[in-house]
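Usage

Read records sequentially. Each one opens with the input sequence:
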Amino acid sequence: MKLNYFAYLLMLPLLVSSCSKSNDETIIPEEPQPKESIYLFLKEDLIDFKVYKGSLNGGIEVSKTEKPESFWNPYKLIDLKYDTLIVRNDSIFERPEKYEKNNFRFRVSNDTIYQWNRYAEFWALYGLKKDDIIEHYVSFYSFQKATPPYLFAENGHNDGLVDSTRYFGTNEYVFKSPKNMISVDDLATWYNTKHVFKKLTTDPK
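and closes with the structure output:
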């Protein structure tokens, strides 16, 4: 009996240590896998293309006789084209990836997609989401205002849309209206397109 009692006393610290280690172990739950959807490029559609050129009598719309390639390099016209959009939870990844901004947070409000501009910290227009379709808006713009000896000009492209309010308004750097485009060097043009992507319903092979 004494031997059994002493053996029990010797085993007790080991049992307590073992139980303590068992109780200290915490089970880390597995992180849920992000929900992922893949959208493939389907087509490109024209939204609008407007061109106003200055004259001594004011700006004249010449949209029907001009082409986008006259104002933007053909390589620039395809710079914002992607073949795949990968949507994971609240993020969109544009592929092929060209810039840091091709991976961004997004939110949807009344079918409109907004992307988070990490540089200026605001929600910018990206496009529309309709069932299994995503429409990505792409805009191109070019502008010249001649006030000799100065010339204010810009030319570029971006996500979202451009309309007449960009160049016709109360800002001193733009025209109040096409009537104020009284120099032959004056120009205001914009080109809006949408890139349509369709959700992939089966795994690509």
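Summary fields computed downstream for this record:
- The mean pLDDT is 88.
- The two ends are 74 Å apart (CA to CA).
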